[in-house]
Design brief:
291 residues, alpha+beta, 8-stranded antiparallel β-sheet, 3-stranded antiparallel β-sheet, 27% strand
Length: 291
């Protein structure tokens, strides 16, 4: 879980420090106070882990688009993550990883890593996994290896992309695994197929080839498969979801997964008590119901 997020010079967040606990967190504030920017910073980190720093920066508008207007210093992001892993069933490991990033504008207009460090504080003492020494990023081997440190030489590569070795650098491997699975859902592109100007666009309403899927993709895509997986494999979670849905929409009798012609694709639909004998398909639902 994420315990702390400190962001400096990232869009509206000139210098913000947030702590999180093992309870749902709600951000409350006036418009343009930075609530959405907190989520954007988390999405940025997730994309960094999944797609790489350059791609994540481009997806968020480029370095000049991401850095706070008028700021001259680098973008700085500090996160603290706590999680447990089990390299062997007998030896669970608890990780408390503090990851520091300092990002600057490259000469070509892109982005470069100015500084990066990673410290594991999970065993009561700080153990550096990535050390910054005068701008050099040194990745230290773990698990008792006698090998010397390795240096990250690519200016736009993060350490867990430069060295993907679960045995020598397990802390880096697990950090990337945790961060890349952060799910941030902003506004959903809920338009049905008949309302789109571009036939190539997709939305959570679309029918999908049946596949096991536990998490939504960005922008809520893959909704039919996620709902189907919860319904078939996770009865308790599905019951909670249906209960919450009916509390908001009491006229819904149940959620269905009708097959498209041919049988390989499914969508989701509702049985509506107001219209007996008729199924309301995803394309007919309001944006509020889909979102």
């Amino acid at each position: 879980m994420l315990l702390r997020l400190h962001v400096k010079n990232f869009r509206l967040l000139r210098d913000a420090d947030l702590e999180f606990h093992d309870v749902p967190t709600v951000l409350i504030g006036p418009n343009a106070s930075g609530k959405s920017t907190v989520l954007e910073a988390l999405d940025f980190l997730s994309r960094c882990a999944d797609e790489g720093l350059a791609a994540a920066t481009a997806a968020h508008g480029g370095f000049d688009g991401v850095r706070t207007i008028g700021a001259e210093g680098p973008i700085e992001i500090v996160t603290t993550w706590f999680f447990s892993v089990t390299p062997t069933p007998e030896e669970p490991r608890y990780c408390m990883l503090q990851w520091r990033l300092s990002l600057a504008r490259a000469h070509n207009g892109g982005v470069r890593v100015e500084r990066e460090s990673l410290v594991d504080e999970g065993n009561g003492q700080a153990r550096p996994l990535v050390a910054d020494e005068g701008g050099r990023r040194l990745v230290l081997p773990e698990n008792g290896s006698t090998d010397g440190p390795s240096e990250v030489t690519e200016a736009d590569a993060l350490a867990f992309h430069a060295f993907v070795d679960k045995e020598r650098f397990p802390g880096l491997y697990w950090l990337r695994s945790v961060v890349r699975n952060v799910r941030v859902l902003g506004s959903l592109p809920t338009s049905p197929s008949w309302g789109r100007g571009n036939a190539a666009q997709t939305s959570p309403r679309d029918s999908l080839v049946i596949a096991p899927k536990m998490f939504l993709d960005r922008q809520g895509l893959g909704l039919a498969n996620v709902l189907y997986a919860l319904n078939t494999d996770h009865g308790e979670a599905w019951a909670r979801l249906e209960g919450a849905f009916r509390a908001e929409f009491p006229f819904v009798r149940r959620i269905l997964f009708p097959a498209e012609p041919g049988g390989a694709r499914i969508t989701f639909a509702l049985e509506d008590a107001r219209f007996p004998g008729r199924t309301i398909r995803a394309a007919e639902m309001s944006d509020g119901m889909v979102a």
